[in-house]
Amino acid sequence: MLSSNDSHITDEMLSAFIDNLLPENEHKFVEAAIKADAEVAWRVQSLRQTVAYLNELPELALPRSFALPANISLTESWLARQSTHQPKAAQLEVSTQDSGFWSGLRNYLQGPKGLSFNAMAAAIALALLVGGGFLYGDLLTENLRSLTNSAQVATTSQNTEIASNADANSSAGAETESDAADDSQDSSTIAQESDAAEMATSVSVAILPTETAIAMAATQQNVEPANAEFVDPAILTPSRPLAQPTSIPLSTPLTTPDMPLAQAPAAPAAASSSMANTVAPLTAQAQAVEGITDMAASSIERADADSEQFDSVEDRGEGIISSRKIDLPTDGSIANESMANESMETAAENYNEFIEEYSPTAEESNMGNQASSGSLESSSVIPFNVNTPQSAPSGVAAASSSQAQAAPLTESTTPQATIPPVELPPIVIEIDESTGALTGTIQVRQDNGTMGPLAVAYIGLGQLDAMTIDENGVAKYDATQYNESAVRYTSTDNNGLFIFTSIEPGAYVLIYNVNGTQSRLNMPTDIGNDVANNVEPTPEALVIEIRAGEQIDTGVLQYEKLP
Amino acid sequence: MTEEELIDSAKSGDVDSFNQLIYTYERLAYSVAHRTLRNPDLAADAVQNGFVKAFRGLNGFRGGNFRAWLMRIVTNCCYDILRAEKRRPTESLDHLLSGVEHLPYLTDPQESPEQYTSRMELGNLIETGIGTLPADQRVVIVLRDVHGYTYQEIADITQDAMGTVKSRLSRARGGLRDYLQQHSELLPETYRHKDASL
User: Fold this and answer.
1) Contact status of A519 with chain B (Cβ, < 8 Å)
2) Which of B15, B20, B169 sits opposite A70 (nearest CB)?
3) Is residue A284 assigned to a domain?
4) Are residues A545 and A505 in the same domain?
5) Which of A355, A386, A358, A373 minimizes the C-alpha distance to A418?
6) Is the pLDDT at B133 greater than 70, yes or no?
């Protein structure tokens, strides 16, 4: 604080003075002091200059739109998507018809356990370098011993289903083990060549097969031989595939940017869902079980050998850590090595809890298998099927069933781990009988030449109010005739998805709002079939007719350039 | 539609009307939040949470200055985040990487490199100086001297007495001036005190 000869003139008085908020007598007093005392004059001048500097500070650019979604019921999940401080997997709240294992799996992965599971990934990665290799080898050994025991039990009981399951699981386990070892070694090599962050990422990938192995063992133990009686005889044919899998080499990370670590546990589900409908003749089973037993025994030996390798990896990992200065975050997310180890153990416990809680019954296994026989669009893309609430479940079921019948029958002869096709539920928006809904995705040509989503943009819906009927009975709208002040707005998400609900029936145009300037979106190169079924749009205009009780999905609207 | 009409419409559940209000005030809200929280991500969270809370609590708005009411909610969200951050201190790696050498929102393509550098240094200095102030003073000085709120509006937003607002503002201005004086080599000649010891 600066001093002044006029000590009774405080900065508070001077602050009010420069804002002309002092009473008249005090104002005159300060004015006189300014003339009489250079120090007071400088204090006033410096305060004024400070305020002037603040006045000249530029306006901050908005990082994104803060507009609320049209359907406020989506707010919570939408907020989670928008949040940059605590990123969270994007998830629309949708009406789903499924339940049971798949629902449980999804809820688990999206719930607190799933979050903690993901959050522990970093801790697991660090822990793996130090002690993970040792633990990993032990777990694999125990797992494979368990598989061997299961196979032997199957041999004794002559239960064909268990034998087949053991085949699938043992094969997967063998692949898991070998690839995991490769991954772990790769991780070690990468760790020596890259920085700490990259090292953690690569190792976190290597841990996935371990989790898969744990889950597979747990699933195996939860399947009773009596499950065979629930298997539909119609699908118990020798040439029936063990599964209609999406084969993914375990050396490949089991994650994608859009469906990260949480999706990985689908692998054990594959084994469990394929158990109910995979069977082979008894003679083949006996041979298969013998082979499985040998394979599992061989795997145990290899796992033991790997344990020694992991000891070596552990030593190397410690060397890496000691030779590098890794500044741990100040928030204590990875406070120390013991915490990381504890997190790893907790993750394994949580996972086993999940498997026990959500392991499917025989019926669910059948259902899951039928559903999983459908096509998997992509593990990272949620198919956006908009249907009326009445037709959605049946439509989806029919598609899955037909695809299951048409699935080619192949026999898996080499050990491999599989991830089953996952039938994700369609997004169904609840609408009432008097209004409609509109959804769609907008893409625009990016600077790099590819089509990309129009993310976080203001998209409006303007209702057309002028319509004529031509001689052929076709309704025509003038796309320019909409009330600009009555345009409803929403914001696209990061995938360019927009949703309008509770739309009064009528014809509408989409509006693109840039900095307050409204521009009508024209007809794109590719639009959905439901758009303007009986409306002939004016040239270049995209006119969408909304009917009561219906949802319209425009599909992906692609634009080379937006207004 | 007037602001009152938009508010009435939003009270009946029309999100679009409320979004029209958001378009009007989001820049202001984000600016205040950013300069209060000193973190763009936290600021965005505060603004978004504030707008959602405002929409949900709109029926509690009994008229008057909507801007002040809205900013009070956003400011309270900022305080909530500050309290949470105080309990769980964190340091953004992104922030460490970017440092204070470059503030992209201060760029102006129309000026020369020398002008840009000079203004950048001064702008950085002022922004950093604001960051050294206590949070309650930060809010007041940003609302008053950056965004031009009246004392009464600030009192409404912060729910403090007018005298408290005046006091905080004067301390904030004095504190910022003293901070700038410590870096007088970056300031214009007229701003430097004749006695360097002061």
Assistant:
1) no
2) B15
3) yes
4) yes
5) A373
6) yes
Instruction: Write out the H or E segment, with its range, that includes residue A48.
Output: helix A38-55
Q: Chain B interface, mutation test: which of A21, A59, A66, A488, most B Cβ atoms within 10 Å?
A: A66
CA distance B109 to A278: 68
Total beta-carbon pairs less than 8 A apart between chain A and chain B: 149
Residue B168: its pLDDT value, please?
93
The ipTM assigned to this model is: 0.79
Total domain count, chain A: 3
pLDDT for A160 equals 37
| A443 and A540 inside one domain | yes
Looking at the fold, whether A166 and A17 belong to one and the same domain comes out as no
- Give the model's pLDDT for residue B144: 92
Mutate to test the interface with A, among B177, B181, B193 (most CBs of A within 10 A): B177
Give domain limits for chain B. 1-93, 106-198
By the CB < 8 Å criterion, does B66 face chain A? no
Tell if the CB–CB gap between B15 and A59 is shorter than 8 Å. Answer: no
pLDDT score of B174: 92
Report whether A173 contacts A148 (CB < 8 A): no
Beta-carbon neighbour count of residue A356 at 10 Å? 12
**Helix count and strand count (H, E) for chain A:** 14, 14
Predicted TM-score (pTM) of this structure? 0.37
**Residue of chain A minimizing CA distance to B93:** A329
| Nearest alpha-carbon partner for A392 in A19, A54, A96, A28 | A96
**Which chain A residues are closer than 8 Å to B19 by Cβ?**
67-68, 489
For residues A445-455, one letter each, b for 16 or more C-beta atoms within 10 angstroms of the residue's C-beta and e for the rest, the string is eeeeeeeebbb
Q: Which helix (H) or strand (E) holds A309?
A: helix A282-323
Tell me whether B103 touches chain A (CB under 8 Å). no
Report the residue from B41, B104, B122 with minimal CB separation from A85. B41
A57–chain B Cβ distance below 8 A for any pair: yes
Residues A270 and A195 in one domain: yes
In this structure, is residue A487 part of a structural domain?
yes
Whose CA is closest to A128, among A337, A350, A346, A349? Answer: A337
Are B27 and A85 inside 8 Å of each other by CB?
A: no
Provide the phi-psi class of A496: left if phi over 0, else alpha when psi is between -120 and 50, else beta.
left
Q: What CATH number has the domain bearing residue A455?
A: 2.60.40.10
Q: Averaged over A171-191, what is the pLDDT? A: 39
b/e map of B77-115 (b: 16 or more CB within 10 Å)? bbbebbeeeeeeebeeeeeeeeeeeebebbeeeeeeeee
Q: Inform me whether the C-beta atom of residue A334 falls under 8 Å from chain B C-beta atoms.
A: no
Domain of residue A51 covers 11-55
pLDDT value at position B125?
Answer: 85
Fold adopted by B106-198: Arc Repressor Mutant, subunit A (1.10.10)
**A21 and chain B: CB distance < 8 Å anywhere?**
yes
- CATH 1.10.10.10 at B1-93, yes or no: no
Residue-wise pLDDT for B61-120, tens only, equals 888 889 889 999 999 999 888 887 766 555 555 544 444 444 555 555 566 666 667 777
Cβ contact, residue pair B29, A70, below 8 Å: no
Beta bridge partners of A366: none
User: Taking CB atoms and an 8 Å limit, are A59 and B191 in contact across chains?
Assistant: no
Nearest residue, CB atoms, B42 vs list A54, A61, A85: A85
Which residues neighbour A499 within 8 Å (Cβ) at sequence distance 6 or greater?
A69, A70, A71, A74, A429, A437, A438, A439, A490
- Assigned domain for A6 exists: no
CB B48 within 8 A of CB A83: yes
pLDDT in tens, A90-122: 333 333 333 344 444 554 444 444 444 444 555
Shortest Cα–Cα distance, B64 to chain A (Å):
23
Mean pLDDT of A332-346: 48
